[in-house]
Amino acid sequence: MRRAASWRTRGLAAAGALATALAAACGGEEAGRPDLVLVTIDSLRADRLGAYGYARPTSPRIDALAAEGVVFSQAWATSSWTKPSVTSLFTSRLPSEHGAVAFDRHLDAALPTLAELLRDAGYRTAGVSGNFVHVSKRSGLARGFEHWRAVSVPAGRARGDAIFVEGEGERTIRAAAPDGARLNREVRERLSQLGEGPLFLYVHYMEPHPGFRPPARHRRGLVSDAADGAGVSSERIVDLAAGRASADAEERRRLGELYDAEIATVDEALGELLDWLAEVRPDRERVVVVVADHGEELGDRGGWFHGLTLHREVLGIPLVIWDSRGRSGPERRQEPVDLLDVTTTLLALAGVPPAPGMRGRDLLASGVPLPERPLVAELHPDPPFESHVGTREQRLAYQAWPWKAIVAAEGDPWVFRVDRDPEERARLATDASDVPPAFLASLERLRGHFLVGAPETPAEALDPQTLEGLRELGYVR
User: Fold this and answer.
1) Is the overall model pTM greater than 0.85, yes or no?
2) What is the CATH number of the domain that holds 112?
3) pLDDT of 22 over the 50 cut
4) Considering the domain boundaries, does residue 117 fall inside one?
5) Domain coverage including residue 128
6) 320 close to 289: Cβ distance less than 8 angstroms
């Protein structure tokens, strides 16, 4: 409690002083402060978007934003599953620092979030999450939002059916994730309750998280058997990941096509959201950030699902920043960046200083080169997940361009030179003559810190509703 109080004393004082200074300098609290819209698309690989070179028409609206904005070609997640990655997104801290590393471990209560800092600096804050299991009040990720909804729908019905909202008349039901259109309706309701002032809006879409059930209009042109109408359940994909089933070439193709159609579905929902915001807040300048929490294995290296490995297919995510004021872009940036940089960039756009201990950089700072920073991703033990899906042999990934290493719980690290081997196929021996000794030394120091630096957040019992959600999303039996 003393840690939390200490942070709040410093954070509230700084935010209050900043808000006062902004109001005085700009002739009012709103002047010069854009609306900030942060969109996370669950399980979205960067390499399945047109803006990142994909040939199939999965993402026209994201591609349009990218054509006018800043595209980061080498953006990394801090983990390969949702809770640790989104918590890093909200706190600009690594998973081993924020503590939300397992189903039963949540955000350290002493750490400030992006929404808290923006709220305390005068922003109106609203968040709507379709990931009702991991991005929720229970996880600590609703802190700082004046209006928050983690939304689910009854499993076995249409994904746009009547909703069940976290904390409001919940029942232990088999709950499923809502589709993007349903989530947009919830956003419209939440924003109707906000007053004037600069807005911070967070939206977490669930397509293309398994299972894959795209509507017919998005199957056409992307799925070979579009008239079939059948999707694929998360249970089937997890059975493939766990080795309880195998997929032939035809099924692998079909699963990839369904994944593409799911992307087209969420791309349409994102476009509808942005069109609506432009209509209802026409006089507001706006910055939109589109990112993913992690990618997805689609038969890469024989693997499926996510949360098991730390290769490019699960860590390589899109990051697009679009500014209605035209102050950034069009530009394609090659520097390696990660989720830690998103919070600090949004804070800079709002004129709010980062909290002590935040690791991210301001990606849009003008006139100065982006400071280099090694990138880290983590996977921690989670017995319920590993007993159902598979053992997490890979625990730590470390990249200092152009070198990347993946560390298992035991044994030598896997080293790759990603400028020459972006798919991470050619594993190098650690004693290879061209692997820099300084890189290996830094890796060993990081590995030692990671192995002894267990998160301090206490484990909490999983409630029945969370367990039902975990089952529907495929994480547990």
Assistant:
1) yes
2) 3.40.720.10
3) no
4) yes
5) 32-369
6) yes
